[in-house]
Amino acid sequence: MRRILQNKLLTIVIVLSIVFFVFIGFTASKTDRVNVFEGVVGNVLTPVQKYLYMGGQRVGNFFGFIGDISTIKNENEELKKKNSELEQKLIDYDQVVSQNDRLKSMLDFKDSNKVYDYYGANIVGKGSDNWNDTFIIDKGSNHGIKKYYPVVNSNGLIGQVVEVGPNWSKVLSMVDERSWVSGEVSRTRDQGMIQGYSGSSGERKCKMLYLPADSKVEKGDIVATSGISKFFPKGVKVGVVEDIESDNGDFTKTLIIKPEVDFNKLEEVFVITNSMKDTDYPDEGN
Q1: What is the pLDDT of residues 64-119, one digit of tens each?
Q2: Of 2.115.10.20, 3.40.50.1820, 2.40.10.350, 3.30.420.10, which CATH number belongs to 37-276?
Q3: Cα(228)–Cα(280) distance, rounded to whole angstroms?
Q4: Hey, where are the domains in the chain?
Q5: How confident is the model at residue 41, as a pLDDT?
Q6: Cβ(191)–Cβ(231) under 8 Å?
Q7: Residues with Cβ < 8 Å from 135, sequence gap 6 or more?
Q8: pLDDT tens figures, 114-156
Q9: pLDDT at 33
Q10: Which residues pair with 173 in a beta bridge?
Q11: Can you say how many angstroms the Cα of residue 60 is from the centroid of all Cα atoms in its chain?
Q12: Environment class of residue 20 by beta-carbon count within 10 Å: exposed (0-12), middle (13-18) or buried (19+)?
């Protein structure tokens, strides 16, 4: 009996000792075991967290990119608008410079030809005929313009007024085949009649007819009005000899003349108002 009690006592002591040491061990290693747990959890969650973070970054970058595209688009539209405005300003500037150059040339021409009186006019339309053959100017009978008045610019002869309204006039250009002007080769003094002419490729030129066969005219010679016609003053430049043809059995020559005036770029003109005498007008009630 005594042995049994001793064995029970020993057992209790051993159990209490084990519990005591376990408790001590548990208390002493609690922090270490928590760290181990956290390490295990961290090892498991870190890759997941990494991919979640990277995914979040990509989503954020995507929406940031969308926002950048919208900003860039707005900035691009604004730049296009400013570029269009600058281009228009440049066009306006070039037009002003070109107009100033033309007007200066016309004023210089007027100052160097003071024997005549001039009325400035703007071309406001084309006639119903060939595009370069007739055009409309913004001055008419209310401004003293009359039929048959010659029309010029700083480069030379343009044509003649053929119809007049109160505030407009119709001008027949010298490149029209219905136009006839007496002309003269400035260097040789040879004279002939200048008529409108259409070149082989449709370009509008003039030809000078009835020059003598022995004329010494050469390509590049200047042709001007002769003053024989009562409708056109003397010495107004017509153009330059471009080609020379012999005709009528070599009794006469015909000159192909390139007009000095560019009929594709006409905008402002002068109407000469005092080159004709009252007695020069045909009896047409004009």
Answers
A1: 656 667 777 777 878 777 777 777 766 666 656 655 666 666 666 666 667 888 89
A2: 2.40.10.350
A3: 12
A4: 1-30, 37-276
A5: 45
A6: no
A7: 123, 125, 126, 127, 170, 171, 173, 266
A8: 788 889 999 999 875 555 589 999 999 999 999 999 999 989 9
A9: 46
A10: 159
A11: 45
A12: exposed
Whose tokens are 């109160």? That residue is 166
CB distance 17 to 25 below 8 Å: no
Sorted by sequence, the CB contacts under 8 Å of residue 118 that are 6+ apart come out as 110, 270, 271, 272, 273
Tokens of 282: 């045909």
- pTM here? 0.64
